[in-house]
Amino acid sequence: MSEKPGVYLNDRVVPLEEARISVLDHGFLYGDGVYETMRVYEGVVFRMEEHLARLERSASLIGMGLPKSAGQIRLAIYETLLACRHKDAYLRVTVSRGEGPIGLDPSLCPRPTFFIFADRLRPIVRADYEEGIRLAVVKTRRNPAEALDPRIKSLNFLNNILAGIEAKKAGADEALMLNCKGQVAEGTTSNIFFVKGGALCTPSPACGILMGITRDVVLEVARRLDIRVVEGEFGSRDLFFDAQEVFITSTIRGVVPVRQLDGAFSPGSFPVGPVTKLLMAEYRKEVSSYVENTRAAGPSIWGFGG
Ligand code: PDD
Which of 10, 80, 203, 264 could hold 6 in an S-S bridge, CB 3.0 to 4.6 Å? Predict the structure, then answer.
């Protein structure tokens, strides 16, 4: 089996060494562009339609038309996965404003650059799921929606990168960012949940967060299980003093328990509690049934993946 990643640039699959873009690409010069990260399980892209819809929304929020239809992007994804040959993979679709002369004006770039990259997943750290990770509340605040709408999954990731640097310095695995009002917002690449008095709490869209696709799946599953869900506005006190369980969610990692919270107050520690365990198990079931149904319905790359 080939160990090479799958790479698709503009209109075809290419070897990684040949995938080159211009130094005048505005994605490189200005972070002008959008992207999606998807997870592939047994050759099936989990919740691909939701990711494609978010890509389309991000592009439209920056006034950029996608250079391909949803159908063409689906085909390009399958072609990339065939070239990648990992059935369990990380897959990223990136669309930048494209090449153009120096200058911020998007009309300088006649054609967006379209790039897909699929590769094997980094090995999962079992202890993260069994014991939980460390989260640190950092000083870097989440971009306010009035400055850069956090619903846009943009190539402009410095806000999150700076938060991540702070968390790493603090010895934590992930940063927790507050918004400019001091409310709990989200991680650098994850959404946050906590359990308080039996209710599952998570910051509402009004807190200025990326509307995570894993977040949506967890909310769907929790409601199906009759768990009370509160999408609200919370301060770090709610987490440090009232939370019984804490976890984060993201496409690549799924549901990951948090065992320790540092930052705003003296460290809080949390067990991997019953609600987290239940939601981790139900999330895995949701993925399995999605994979099964998609493969039964086809089309899928299953059977071609080597
Ligand atoms: N990041 N919040 C932010 C700021 C994110 O970047 C992400 C995802 C999430 C979780 O969203 P989802 O459940 O749709 O993955 C929340 C991806 C994984 C990334 O940056 O690669």
Answer: 80
pLDDT in tens, the chain (306 residues): 457 899 999 999 999 999 999 999 999 999 999 999 999 999 999 999 999 999 999 999 999 999 999 999 999 999 999 999 888 999 999 999 999 999 999 999 999 999 999 999 988 899 999 999 999 999 999 999 999 999 999 999 999 999 999 999 999 999 999 999 999 999 999 999 999 999 999 999 999 999 999 999 999 999 999 999 999 999 999 999 999 999 999 999 999 999 999 997 888 899 999 999 999 999 999 999 999 999 998 765 544 443
Distance 257 CA to ligand 1 centre (A): 16
Asked if CATH classification 3.20.10.10 holds for the domain at 126-291, the reply, yes or no, is yes
CB atoms within 10 A of CB 63: 9
Q: Which residues of 179-201 are buried (b: 16+ CB within 10 A; e: fewer)?
A: beeebbbbbbbbbbbbbbeeebb
Tokens encoding 74: 């689906």
Residue-range domain boundaries for the chain: 6-120, 126-291
Peptide bond into 144 cis (omega under 30): no
Quick one: residue 106, left, alpha or beta (phi over 0 = left, psi -120 to 50 = alpha)?
A: alpha
- CATH match of 6-120 with 3.30.470.10: yes
Which residue among 47, 49, 93, 191 has the greatest number of ligand 1 atoms within 8 angstroms of its CB, and so is best to mutate? 191
For ligand 1, residues with CB inside 6 Å are 37, 160, 186, 189-191, 210, 212-215, 249-252
